[in-house]
Amino acid sequence: MNINDFKEDFGKAIEFFKTDIAGLRTGRATSAMVENVTVEAYGIRQPLKAVASISIMDPKTLMLDPWDKTILAAVEKGIRDANIGINPVNDGRGIRLSLPELTVERRQELIKILRERTEGVRIAIRKIREDIKDMILAEQEDNNIAEDEKFRLMDELEKAVKDYNEEIKEIANKKEEEISTV
């Protein structure tokens, strides 16, 4: 048994966290803000990135260009229903999203959401840690590993979890700084 065998599980949790918080609005327009907004098109709900190209016109404006112009209204409705604080403007060829300035209250709200999501990923990391601990204890009970090996694996696991939590903290601090920057 090796703790590095579980590196992928920890990595998936951190990648999900990065993707999850990428959609949190900062002062700049990014495609991540809207690419996972669901749109009702062709009778099914699908992410915006599957039905339209998303381009950044300037730091405060996104342009959505659906590949099929007949779904413009559906894309516009999807943006409105997502309640992301951006008002879509349909010009007949595409949809323009102009980002309003973030108010102090909205920035504080976004930081609160960021902290909730940060805690969510920490819980996921703890869950993975508990599963690995249970495996280590089961291995020892089955006499597959010695007690010294159990303690070595537990120490290695705790060090790995500490490193992943530090990485999460760095990612969250960087995102919080982005949100706070006016």
From TrEMBL:
Record's Gene3D superfamilies? 3.30.1360.40, Ribosome-recycling factor (1.10.132.20)
Origin superkingdom: Bacteria
**GO annotations of cellular component type:** cytoplasm
InterPro entries recorded: Ribosome_recyc_fac (IPR002661), Ribosome_recyc_fac_dom (IPR023584), RRF_sf (IPR036191)
- Compartments, as annotated in UniProt: Cytoplasm
Which interval of the chain is the signal sequence? none
Its function, per the record, reads: Responsible for the release of ribosomes from messenger RNA at the termination of protein biosynthesis. May increase the efficiency of translation by recycling ribosomes from one round of translation to another.
HAMAP family of this UniProt entry?
RRF
Name the NCBIfam families for this protein: frr
Q: What is this protein called?
A: Ribosome-recycling factor
Q: Which organism is it from?
A: Candidatus Magasanikbacteria bacterium RIFOXYC2_FULL_42_28
